[in-house]
Design brief:
Number of strands: 14
Order of helices and strands: EEHHEEEHEEEEEHEHEEEH
Largest sheet: 10 strands, mixed
Bound molecules: uracil
Distance between the termini: 33 Å
CATH class: Alpha Beta
CATH topology: Rossmann fold
Radius of gyration: 17 Å
Shape: globular
Oligomer: single chain
Number of domains: 1
Structural class: alpha/beta
Length: 213
């Protein structure tokens, strides 16, 4: 795992292998969807590292022993559309989570997010929060989402941004605006192109996930 204070790149061999399949333009939607979910589960290990626990006692068949329970229930917040595919893998490992949805699409001219849906769980201030945005490109959508979540009570130091692929520009923007937010990603790519797509990236994650190319 490669780590700077602000971004954790999960470079496990399984992640590298699956990300390569996701990048491949020849990978069909059916496989893309499965891979996205699998990488979501692999990134979940790092994205959930700082979730709060409470101590408990459990009875094994032999004796009582000390244990831990995830509490309060974390909140997983996918940014629609593509966040849904990556969040599914996280939720496979974290069925205790409550899920909030933030809908926004990118205005292709301004490359700014246009919001259309907000549905969030209560009590964000007490929870660990994982925001799921597969392509951290300009950082505008993630920044919009984080701003909104902090206005609704979420705490920056308890919030993680989970991305499949990140561009240096997006990472810099999130670091600048929200230095306490940790970013967990499978890859830090080279740059953005003139349309603000990540290069080499994997194309439009939502289109590839849902077959709307
Ligand atoms: N959104 C995508 O789906 N892909 C990119 O490269 C950038 C934003």
């Amino acid at each position: 795992m490669a780590e700077t204070p602000s971004v954790i790149v999960v470079d496990h061999p399984l992640v590298r292998h699956k990300l390569t399949r996701l990048r491949d333009r020849a990978t069909p939607t059916s496989e893309f969807r499965v891979l996205m979910r699998e990488v979501g589960a692999l990134l979940a290990i790092e994205a959930t590292r700082h979730l709060p626990l409470v101590e408990t006692v459990v009875e094994t068949p032999l004796a009582p022993t000390a244990g831990w329970r995830l509490e309060p229930a974390p909140a997983v917040i996918p940014i629609l559309r593509a966040g849904l595919g990556l969040a599914d893998g996280l939720l496979d490992l974290l069925p205790e989570a409550d899920v909030g949805h933030l809908g926004m699409y990118r205005d292709e001219e301004t490359v700014r997010p246009v919001p259309y849906l907000e549905r969030l769980p209560e009590g964000l201030g007490a929870r660990g929060v994982v925001v799921v945005d597969p392509m951290l490109a300009t950082g505008h959508s993630a920044a919009y989402a984080l701003d909104l979540l902090f206005a609704r009570g979420a705490r920056p130091e308890a919030t993680v941004l989970m991305a499949l692929v990140a561009a240096p520009e997006g990472v810099a923007e999130i670091n600048r605006l929200f230095p306490a937010v940790r970013i967990v990603t499978a890859a830090l790519d080279e740059r953005l192109n003139e349309k603000s797509y990540i290069v080499p990236g994997l194309g439009d994650a939502g289109d590839r996930l849902y077959g709307t190319l």
